[in-house]
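User:
I study polymers; will you set down one protein's sequence and backbone structure tokens?

Assistant:
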Amino acid sequence: MKHVLVALLRVYRAVISPLYGQVCRYHPSCSAYALEAVQEHGSIRGSWLAMRRLGRCHPWAAGGYDPVPSRTRPPRSGVAAPSPQQGA
């Protein structure tokens, strides 16, 4: 499924996207964001990230730099892993 989505996004970027020109408010463009998200996170999470991005893209959006989040999650702060008790 991931390969199908990547192929569809590449076709869109090659055929349809040039017809619109530079209209995206964000960098990278929404189609580039979607392509990178699917390649980085897989078809389900990547599609979800792309849909969220498209939902933020509207005439009143500030726009700007909006990279795809990295795959690794930072450790939660303030939560320490329990240590096993020795010789109770």
Notes: The two ends are 52 Å apart (CA to CA). The helical segments are 2-20, 30-41, 43-56. The longest strand covers residues 26-27.
